[in-house]
Protein backbone atom coordinates (compact mmCIF):
# COMPACT_ATOMS: atom_id res chain seq x y z
CA UNK A 1 0.00 0.00 0.00
CA UNK A 2 2.84 2.35 0.88
CA UNK A 3 4.44 1.64 -2.47
CA UNK A 4 1.26 2.69 -4.27
CA UNK A 5 1.05 5.95 -2.27
CA UNK A 6 4.72 6.77 -2.96
CA UNK A 7 4.23 6.11 -6.64
CA UNK A 8 1.23 8.45 -6.76
CA UNK A 9 3.13 11.17 -4.92
CA UNK A 10 6.09 10.84 -7.29
CA UNK A 11 3.76 11.12 -10.27
CA UNK A 12 2.16 14.28 -8.86
CA UNK A 13 5.58 15.88 -8.25
CA UNK A 14 6.83 15.07 -11.76
CA UNK A 15 3.62 16.36 -13.34
CA UNK A 16 3.81 19.59 -11.33
CA UNK A 17 7.45 20.21 -12.31
CA UNK A 18 6.73 19.56 -15.95
CA UNK A 19 3.81 21.97 -15.88
CA UNK A 20 5.94 24.68 -14.23
CA UNK A 21 8.71 24.14 -16.75
CA UNK A 22 6.29 24.42 -19.64
CA UNK A 23 4.87 27.60 -18.17
CA UNK A 24 8.37 29.08 -17.84
CA UNK A 25 9.21 28.19 -21.46
CA UNK A 26 5.97 29.69 -22.62
CA UNK A 27 6.64 32.85 -20.63
CA UNK A 28 10.17 33.07 -22.14
CA UNK A 29 8.78 32.67 -25.66
CA UNK A 30 6.16 35.31 -24.98
CA UNK A 31 8.87 37.70 -23.82
CA UNK A 32 10.91 36.99 -26.96
CA UNK A 33 7.87 37.64 -29.14
CA UNK A 34 7.12 40.88 -27.30
CA UNK A 35 10.70 42.20 -27.65
CA UNK A 36 10.98 45.27 -29.91
CA UNK A 37 14.25 45.98 -31.70
CA UNK A 38 15.38 49.52 -32.49
CA UNK A 39 16.46 49.94 -36.13
CA UNK A 40 17.49 52.57 -38.66
CA UNK A 41 16.17 52.51 -42.20
CA UNK A 42 16.94 54.02 -45.59
CA UNK A 43 14.81 54.25 -48.71
CA UNK A 44 15.49 51.86 -51.57
CA UNK A 45 16.36 53.72 -54.79
CA UNK A 46 16.33 52.88 -58.47
CA UNK A 47 18.96 54.51 -60.69
CA UNK A 48 22.11 53.80 -62.66
CA UNK A 49 25.02 52.39 -60.68
CA UNK A 50 28.51 53.15 -61.98
CA UNK A 51 31.33 50.95 -60.75
CA UNK A 52 34.59 52.91 -60.63
CA UNK A 53 38.27 52.04 -60.38
CA UNK A 54 41.33 54.02 -59.38
CA UNK A 55 44.61 54.27 -61.32
CA UNK A 56 47.70 56.30 -60.48
CA UNK A 57 49.85 58.34 -62.85
CA UNK A 58 52.72 60.80 -62.72
CA UNK A 59 52.75 64.33 -64.11
CA UNK A 60 55.37 65.80 -66.42
CA UNK A 61 55.59 68.96 -68.52
CA UNK A 62 53.46 68.86 -71.64
CA UNK A 63 56.48 69.97 -73.63
CA UNK A 64 60.05 70.98 -72.86
CA UNK A 65 63.00 72.40 -74.78
CA UNK A 66 66.50 71.28 -73.71
CA UNK A 67 69.28 73.82 -73.17
CA UNK A 68 72.50 72.51 -74.76
CA UNK A 69 75.86 74.33 -74.88
CA UNK A 70 77.82 74.48 -78.12
CA UNK A 71 81.08 74.00 -76.21
CA UNK A 72 81.95 73.29 -72.57
CA UNK A 73 82.49 76.23 -70.25
CA UNK A 74 82.47 77.64 -66.76
CA UNK A 75 79.43 79.42 -65.37
CA UNK A 76 80.27 83.10 -65.00
CA UNK A 77 76.87 84.34 -63.75
CA UNK A 78 73.33 83.08 -63.22
CA UNK A 79 70.51 85.43 -64.18
CA UNK A 80 67.43 83.26 -63.46
CA UNK A 81 66.70 80.85 -60.62
CA UNK A 82 65.78 77.25 -61.29
CA UNK A 83 61.98 76.90 -61.32
CA UNK A 84 61.41 80.54 -62.36
CA UNK A 85 58.96 81.53 -65.09
CA UNK A 86 60.74 83.06 -68.09
CA UNK A 87 59.88 84.62 -71.42
CA UNK A 88 61.44 83.87 -74.78
CA UNK A 89 64.93 85.45 -75.11
CA UNK A 90 65.24 86.10 -71.35
CA UNK A 91 68.88 85.80 -70.20
CA UNK A 92 69.37 82.64 -68.12
CA UNK A 93 73.11 82.40 -67.41
CA UNK A 94 76.52 83.28 -68.88
CA UNK A 95 79.27 80.74 -69.60
CA UNK A 96 83.00 81.40 -70.09
CA UNK A 97 84.29 79.37 -73.03
CA UNK A 98 87.59 79.23 -74.99
CA UNK A 99 85.81 81.28 -77.66
CA UNK A 100 84.64 83.91 -75.16
CA UNK A 101 81.58 84.44 -73.01
CA UNK A 102 78.38 82.76 -74.19
CA UNK A 103 75.01 84.13 -73.02
CA UNK A 104 72.34 81.44 -72.75
CA UNK A 105 68.78 82.65 -73.37
CA UNK A 106 65.34 81.06 -73.15
CA UNK A 107 64.22 79.61 -76.47
CA UNK A 108 60.51 79.92 -75.54
CA UNK A 109 58.12 81.00 -72.81
CA UNK A 110 57.98 78.54 -69.93
CA UNK A 111 59.66 77.52 -66.72
CA UNK A 112 63.41 77.20 -66.23
CA UNK A 113 63.82 73.71 -64.75
CA UNK A 114 66.38 70.98 -63.99
CA UNK A 115 69.21 73.47 -63.57
CA UNK A 116 71.39 72.53 -60.60
CA UNK A 117 74.75 74.15 -61.42
CA UNK A 118 76.32 77.06 -59.52
CA UNK A 119 78.74 79.86 -60.44
CA UNK A 120 82.25 78.62 -61.21
CA UNK A 121 81.04 75.14 -62.14
CA UNK A 122 82.02 73.59 -65.47
CA UNK A 123 79.20 72.58 -67.80
CA UNK A 124 79.53 69.97 -70.56
CA UNK A 125 78.59 70.39 -74.20
CA UNK A 126 76.19 68.40 -76.37
CA UNK A 127 73.94 67.27 -73.51
CA UNK A 128 71.08 69.12 -71.75
CA UNK A 129 72.08 71.22 -68.74
CA UNK A 130 68.51 72.50 -68.13
CA UNK A 131 65.09 72.75 -69.79
CA UNK A 132 62.43 75.33 -70.60
CA UNK A 133 59.18 73.57 -69.86
CA UNK A 134 55.49 74.25 -70.41
CA UNK A 135 53.85 73.55 -67.03
CA UNK A 136 50.63 75.50 -67.57
CA UNK A 137 49.37 72.24 -69.03
CA UNK A 138 50.80 69.02 -67.61
CA UNK A 139 50.93 65.62 -69.20
CA UNK A 140 49.99 62.61 -67.04
CA UNK A 141 51.35 59.17 -67.84
CA UNK A 142 49.72 55.92 -66.67
CA UNK A 143 50.89 52.33 -67.07
CA UNK A 144 47.91 49.95 -66.88
CA UNK A 145 46.99 46.32 -67.46
CA UNK A 146 45.08 45.19 -70.52
CA UNK A 147 41.89 44.99 -68.45
CA UNK A 148 42.18 48.65 -67.46
CA UNK A 149 43.42 49.78 -70.88
CA UNK A 150 40.00 48.89 -72.32
CA UNK A 151 38.31 51.27 -69.84
CA UNK A 152 39.97 54.39 -71.29
CA UNK A 153 38.48 56.24 -74.25
CA UNK A 154 40.28 58.96 -76.17
CA UNK A 155 38.95 62.48 -75.43
CA UNK A 156 37.20 61.23 -72.29
CA UNK A 157 37.35 63.55 -69.27
CA UNK A 158 38.10 61.94 -65.91
CA UNK A 159 38.21 63.22 -62.34
CA UNK A 160 41.73 63.33 -60.89
CA UNK A 161 42.90 64.05 -57.34
CA UNK A 162 46.17 65.52 -56.06
CA UNK A 163 47.02 66.89 -52.61
CA UNK A 164 43.34 66.76 -51.60
CA UNK A 165 42.47 68.85 -54.68
CA UNK A 166 40.31 67.79 -57.62
CA UNK A 167 40.92 68.43 -61.32
CA UNK A 168 39.89 67.25 -64.78
CA UNK A 169 42.04 65.03 -66.99
CA UNK A 170 41.55 64.78 -70.77
CA UNK A 171 42.71 61.48 -72.29
CA UNK A 172 44.95 62.14 -75.32
CA UNK A 173 46.40 58.74 -76.23
CA UNK A 174 45.91 55.06 -75.41
CA UNK A 175 48.65 52.57 -76.22
CA UNK A 176 47.62 49.44 -78.11
CA UNK A 177 50.93 47.62 -77.60
CA UNK A 178 52.33 46.84 -74.13
CA UNK A 179 55.76 48.11 -73.11
CA UNK A 180 58.65 46.04 -71.76
CA UNK A 181 56.85 45.60 -68.44
CA UNK A 182 53.74 44.20 -70.12
CA UNK A 183 51.69 47.30 -69.27
CA UNK A 184 49.91 49.65 -71.66
CA UNK A 185 50.79 53.37 -71.75
CA UNK A 186 47.91 55.85 -71.39
CA UNK A 187 48.38 59.62 -71.45
CA UNK A 188 46.25 62.62 -70.70
CA UNK A 189 46.56 66.34 -69.95
CA UNK A 190 45.50 68.49 -67.02
CA UNK A 191 45.41 72.28 -66.83
CA UNK A 192 47.81 73.83 -64.31
CA UNK A 193 47.60 77.58 -64.88
CA UNK A 194 47.51 78.24 -61.12
CA UNK A 195 50.68 76.16 -60.56
CA UNK A 196 48.87 73.89 -58.10
CA UNK A 197 50.48 70.71 -59.43
CA UNK A 198 54.19 70.01 -59.53
CA UNK A 199 55.86 68.20 -62.42
CA UNK A 200 56.62 64.68 -61.21
CA UNK A 201 53.68 64.60 -58.80
CA UNK A 202 51.53 61.47 -58.49
CA UNK A 203 47.83 61.94 -59.25
CA UNK A 204 44.88 59.59 -58.84
CA UNK A 205 42.37 59.15 -61.67
CA UNK A 206 38.87 57.69 -61.29
CA UNK A 207 37.90 55.44 -64.22
CA UNK A 208 34.29 54.22 -64.71
CA UNK A 209 34.35 50.45 -65.25
CA UNK A 210 30.75 49.31 -65.53
CA UNK A 211 27.30 50.86 -65.47
CA UNK A 212 24.19 48.99 -64.31
CA UNK A 213 21.11 50.66 -65.80
CA UNK A 214 18.02 51.34 -63.66
CA UNK A 215 19.37 49.27 -60.79
CA UNK A 216 17.50 48.70 -57.53
CA UNK A 217 20.01 49.98 -54.98
CA UNK A 218 20.39 49.60 -51.24
CA UNK A 219 23.15 50.71 -48.89
CA UNK A 220 25.84 48.04 -48.76
CA UNK A 221 25.48 48.06 -44.96
CA UNK A 222 21.95 46.60 -45.34
CA UNK A 223 23.21 43.38 -46.94
CA UNK A 224 23.29 40.31 -44.68
CA UNK A 225 25.07 37.11 -45.72
CA UNK A 226 24.42 34.05 -43.61
CA UNK A 227 24.56 30.31 -44.31
CA UNK A 228 25.17 30.84 -48.01
CA UNK A 229 22.10 33.10 -48.27
CA UNK A 230 22.08 36.81 -49.06
CA UNK A 231 19.17 38.92 -47.82
CA UNK A 232 17.97 42.27 -46.47
CA UNK A 233 15.23 43.25 -44.04
CA UNK A 234 12.43 45.60 -45.04
CA UNK A 235 10.58 47.62 -42.39
CA UNK A 236 6.83 47.11 -42.88
CA UNK A 237 3.96 47.55 -40.41
CA UNK A 238 6.36 47.73 -37.44
CA UNK A 239 7.85 44.37 -38.37
CA UNK A 240 11.00 43.20 -40.15
CA UNK A 241 10.37 41.34 -43.41
CA UNK A 242 13.23 39.18 -44.64
CA UNK A 243 13.80 39.41 -48.41
CA UNK A 244 16.26 37.17 -50.23
CA UNK A 245 18.27 39.07 -52.89
CA UNK A 246 20.93 38.53 -55.55
CA UNK A 247 23.80 41.01 -55.80
CA UNK A 248 24.44 42.51 -59.26
CA UNK A 249 27.26 44.98 -58.50
CA UNK A 250 28.75 46.71 -55.47
CA UNK A 251 30.33 50.16 -55.45
CA UNK A 252 31.61 50.95 -51.94
CA UNK A 253 28.55 52.23 -50.04
CA UNK A 254 25.84 51.25 -52.57
CA UNK A 255 24.91 47.82 -53.94
CA UNK A 256 22.70 46.94 -56.91
CA UNK A 257 20.45 43.96 -56.15
CA UNK A 258 17.64 41.83 -57.58
CA UNK A 259 14.77 40.44 -55.53
CA UNK A 260 11.23 41.06 -54.32
CA UNK A 261 12.03 44.63 -53.36
CA UNK A 262 11.08 47.90 -55.00
CA UNK A 263 11.92 51.59 -55.06
CA UNK A 264 10.60 53.37 -51.97
CA UNK A 265 10.77 50.37 -49.63
CA UNK A 266 12.40 51.08 -46.28
CA UNK A 267 15.43 48.83 -45.94
CA UNK A 268 16.95 48.33 -42.48
CA UNK A 269 20.58 49.52 -42.35
CA UNK A 270 21.28 49.33 -38.62
CA UNK A 271 20.07 46.71 -36.15
CA UNK A 272 19.43 44.07 -38.82
CA UNK A 273 21.98 41.61 -37.45
CA UNK A 274 19.75 40.84 -34.45
CA UNK A 275 16.54 40.41 -36.47
CA UNK A 276 14.50 37.45 -37.65
CA UNK A 277 11.69 37.40 -40.18
CA UNK A 278 8.69 38.95 -38.42
CA UNK A 279 10.62 40.58 -35.57
CA UNK A 280 8.91 43.59 -34.01
CA UNK A 281 10.83 46.79 -34.72
CA UNK A 282 10.81 50.45 -33.82
CA UNK A 283 12.30 52.80 -36.41
CA UNK A 284 14.37 55.37 -34.55
CA UNK A 285 15.95 57.12 -37.52
CA UNK A 286 15.60 57.35 -41.27
CA UNK A 287 19.11 57.70 -42.72
CA UNK A 288 19.86 59.76 -45.82
CA UNK A 289 21.68 58.39 -48.86
UniProtKB/TrEMBL annotation:
SUPFAM superfamilies: Single hybrid motif
UniProt KW Signal keyword: yes
Signal peptide (UniProt feature, chain positions): 1-21
One MF term in the entry's GO annotations: efflux transmembrane transporter activity
Domain YknX-like C-terminal permuted SH3-like: 215-283
Gene3D superfamilies: 2.40.420.20, 2.40.50.100
Keyword tags: Signal
Gene Ontology CC terms, in alphabetical order: efflux pump complex
InterPro entries: RND_pump_MFP, Single_hybrid_motif, YknX-like_C
Protein family (similarity comment): Belongs to the membrane fusion protein (MFP) (TC 8.A.1) family.
PANTHER family: MULTIDRUG RESISTANCE PROTEIN MDTA (PTHR30469)
Identification of the protein by name: Efflux RND transporter periplasmic adaptor subunit
Amino acid sequence: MKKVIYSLLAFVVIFTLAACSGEEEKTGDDKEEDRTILVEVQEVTKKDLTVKNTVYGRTQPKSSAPIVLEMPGEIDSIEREEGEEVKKNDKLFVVKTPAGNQTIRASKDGRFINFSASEGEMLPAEEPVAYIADVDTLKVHFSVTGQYQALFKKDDTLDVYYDDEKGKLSITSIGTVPDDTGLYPVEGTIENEEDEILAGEVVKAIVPMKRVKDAIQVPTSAIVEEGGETFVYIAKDDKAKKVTVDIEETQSDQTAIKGKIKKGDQVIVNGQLTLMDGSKINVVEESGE
